[in-house]
Specification:
binds adenosine-5'-triphosphate; 2 domains; nucleotide-binding; alpha/beta; 14 strands; ABC_transporter-like_ATP-bd; Alpha-Beta Plaits; Rossmann fold; about 290 residues
């Protein structure tokens, strides 16, 4: 197991920012860290980075207590922070050297990443002369330049246009293929669904849902059944006290499992209502999120 958080607690005065948080993340996998504002995500990340000391609990990496000096971590913070008056290449070199790279490999990596992110022309500019999106790219390079084994990306897509968001998606996928372990904190559920096989949904400092996304969805307790709204179907559902939502030509019914769906099909059949089409889907992460954190 790459990363293990064991019974983590962190309070600020009377505020319990993180409470009894336990989770595991296998090497080379991606964890989606979710939660509303103030749920405890940043506090958790800061404890992993060694910027905050847990009040209780332990953080382990590859079976040992995580020692920040021995594990290379790339962190893209939510609040971006470049040195505005400093040249792009100078500050990237500074970040690379802080992570232990020698000057020659740092220079090589800077050219490689600027080229890859299609901004080599900004190498000698001051950060303040770059657009917000391009500053974000520089910050991403600072995160990746030392080829870290653990990547922590806090809202990495914010401020990127669709083309740059696609570019970032491709880079994250590449890091995953290289077997890097990744924590992705985002409020955008579709991004979490795209990248993360593991999720941890936090509320008031605690994990309210945690584990493999496929298993969470499978065991969540209902499926979304979509039925063509044939004439007479709504009346029958009302008569049988089956609650539904109307969406265009469809009726959406929440069912517990396959057998509840089959029971409903049987009743429709017995009531001489044709089944023109139907579709049954697991709940989306967005639905689960809204239900759990509301
Ligand atoms: N340094 C601090 N001093 C006092 N309270 C803090 C401090 N840092 C965080 N908190 C509180 O701890 C709780 C968790 O905050 P945290 O920043 O971890 O949430 P978050 O999930 O990252 O939120 P967001 O999505 O808004 O970034 C909040 O109630 C916050 O106000």
């Amino acid at each position: 197991m790459a990363l293990e958080l064991q019974y983590l607690h962190k309070s600020f005065g009377h505020i319990k920012a993180v409470s009894n948080l336990t989770l595991t993340l296998p090497t080379g996998e991606v964890l989606g860290l979710l939660g509303r504002n103030g749920a405890g995500k940043t506090t958790t990340i800061k404890m992993i980075l060694g910027l905050l000391v847990p009040d209780q609990g332990e953080i382990r990496w590859q079976g040992n207590k995580l020692d920040r000096n021995r594990v290379s971590i790339g962190y893209l913070p939510e609040e971006r922070g470049l040195y505005q008056k400093s040249k792009v290449s100078d500050q990237l070199r500074y970040f690379a050297e802080l992570e232990g790279m020698d000057r020659q490999s740092a220079n090589k990596a800077i050219d490689h990443w600027l080229e890859k992110l299609q901004i080599p022309e900004h190498k000698d500019k001051k950060a303040s002369d770059l657009s917000k999106g391009n500053q974000q790219k520089i910050q991403l390079i600072a995160t990746l330049i030392h080829d870290p084994e653990l990547l922590i990306l806090d809202e990495p897509f914010s401020g990127l246009d669709p083309v740059n968001a696609n570019m970032l998606s491709a880079i994250i996928e590449e890091q995953v293929k290289k077997k890097k372990t990744v924590i992705l904190s985002s409020h955008r559920m579709e991004q979490i669904e795209t990248f993360c096989e593991n999720v941890c949904l936090m509320k008031d400092g605690q994990a309210v849902i945690q584990g493999r996304l496929s298993e969470i969805k499978q065991n969540y307790g209902y499926r979304n059944l979509t039925l063509f709204n044939h004439k007479g179907m709504e009346e029958k559902l009302k008569e049988w006290k089956v609650s539904y939502e109307k969406k265009m030509n469809d009726l959406l019914v929440k069912v517990k499992d396959d057998s509840e769906a089959f029971q409903l099909f049987n009743r429709l059949h017995q009531a001489n209502l044709p089944l023109r089409y139907f579709k049954m889907l697991e709940p989306t992460l967005n639905e689960i999120f809204l239900e759990k954190v509301r």
